[in-house]
Amino acid sequence: MTESLKLNIDETRDGVAVIYTDGYINNQGGEEIARLAYELIDKGQSKLLLNLAGTKIVNSIGISILIEIIEKMLEIDGKLAFCCLTPTIEKTFHIMGLAQYAGIYADEDAAFEELSP
Amino acid sequence: MQQVTLTLPMLPDMELTASKMACAMGEHIGLSPDKIDEVQMAVVEACINAFEHSSANDREVHICLKVLGSDEQPAGLEILIQDSGVGFSPDKLAPVPTEHPRAIPRKRGHGLRIIKGLMDEVDILSSAEGTTVVMRKMR
Known about the structure:
- The complex is a heterodimer of chains A (117) and B (139).
- With 117 residues, chain A is α/β, with parallel strands linked by helices.
- Chain A has one domain (6-106): Transcription Regulator spoIIAA.
- In chain A, 42% of the residues lie in helices and 23% in strands.
- Chain A has a five-stranded mixed beta sheet, with helices on both faces.
- In chain B, a hairpin with a 2-residue loop joins strand 4 and strand 5.
- Helices cover 32% and strands 31% of the residues of chain B.
- A five-stranded antiparallel beta sheet of chain B has the order 1-2-3-5-4, covered by helices on one side.
- Chain B is globular and about 40 Å long.
- In chain B, helix 2 (33-53) packs antiparallel against helix 3.
- Chains A and B meet through helix 2 and helix 3 of A and helix 1, helix 2 and helix 3 of B.
């Protein structure tokens, strides 16, 4: 039994690629997000927004992979932000210290205000 | 006292089975949705810790969910997650994240910090015969 994470992407927004997650972010899910993020970075994208509206559970291994993406974004002077988190996922991101290095926003509009040129 | 027990094999995503059971118990005693979410995440982390680090020969995790208080007035949930692995030192938590902008926290070992941050009470009993994580969430 494995629960695969579904990902969708919107590259049409002004200078920001939005990745939408649907499902559990575990090690496999985290790696899927990383693979997509690195493809976008290789294409020249330096601003990513992860919309977690479709995710209710994230585990610490998944979060560790998200931290690797943040490290990569810091290396290229890019930005990774998150929006639409459940209160529990937001609390967990703060516990792990992730919130110090990536913006967390209530919704996409708030994120775009910060990320857009 | 009402309680449910189950034994899970250490297989991918089995932690979700435990979290779904915790969700059902939380709903049964009237925990708020946010508290149920916190319990589910903590259960996932405790199971993953056992899967990843216990080295238990039987490759099983035993879970017991108990309703605290009376049937008429449940006070909360107590969850025991037990493995028969090699044990560990509960004092060895991952370091607290610092304020330095490049000091991204260590990538592993945050499970216990998450569990302690999400639950009201957490006790860890660990020896060379195994580990039991006892956690409670009150209404």
